[in-house]
Amino acid sequence: MYRKTIEILVPDPSNDFSYLTKEIIESLEKEKATIYPITLGVDQCYIIRGEKTIMIDAGSPKQAKSFRKAVERLSIKPEDIKLIVLTHGHWDHIGTAKEIKDLTGGKLALHQKEKDWLEKSLKPLPPGVTAWGKTFGKILALFMPLIHISATDVDIVLGDGEFPLSEYGIPGKILYTPGHSMGSVSIVYCSIRGILSWET
After folding, report:
1. Contacts for 19 with CB less than 8 Å, ≥ 6 apart
2. Which residues are registered as beta bridge partners of 36?
3. What are phi and psi of 191, to 5 degrees?
């Protein structure tokens, strides 16, 4: 259920890198971005600090204190985080989104197919495919009434096209990658050493 993939792709001259603007190329040449993993409940989130700072995913509910401790430990001011990308709308990825948005003032980005999950505090569970998945889903359903997600507005509603991150000082883009859920997105981060892509 918790799939995390990280892969390094070596740039191929035949690949289409037309989305690499002059600003992104200059950022790549400076190579100042750093990726920090932080754990918020059962979810691994990431803070990417480049010319500006963004965050990927918002963890389980009630993790605001853990978030504050993590950014303090990393010497990052909460208000420096300008964008929070939610890779999909499951409760363990959007659980502290409102609180993090309130603390940072950053914009929340989520795919249009799952934005209601955050805006209306919904907690749909994926149907199990295997016998184990169906059993796990039934067990998890027993605990869902105990989980509360604070509803908040989604500032950037992602569609099926690409969303460049250059405005947020990060060389890369968000891609629509349905699979884990119908509103899943992945982030592609471009580095002079290669391309890092991940879905959490």
Report:
1. 162, 164, 173
2. 47
3. -130, 155
Residue 133 domain flag: no
Residue of 106 and 26 predicted with greater confidence: 106
Number of domains observed in the structure of the chain:
1
pLDDT in tens, 80-100: 999 999 999 999 999 999 999
Question: Order of strands across the sheet with 34-40?
Answer: 34-40, 43-49, 53-56, 81-85, 107-111, 156-158
Predicted TM-score (pTM) of the model is 0.81
Domain enclosing residue 43, as ranges: 5-11+18-123+149-199
CA distances from 116 to 13, 57, 82, 89, 186 (A): 40, 16, 22, 9, 19
pLDDT over 50 at 3, yes or no:
no
Please give the average per-residue pLDDT across 176-182, as a whole number.
90
Distance from the Cα of residue 182 to its chain's centroid: 15
CATH number of the CATH domain containing 38 = 3.60.15.10
Cα 16 from Cα 34, distance rounded (Å): 25
Please check whether residue 60 is in contact with residue 95, taking contact to mean a CB–CB distance below 8 angstroms.
Answer: yes
In a domain? residue 159: yes
CA–CA gap between residue 136 and residue 130 (Å, rounded): 10
CA separation for the pair 95, 45 (Å, rounded): 12
Instruction: Determine, yes or no, domain membership for 72.
Output: yes
Is there a domain that residue 135 lies in?
Answer: no
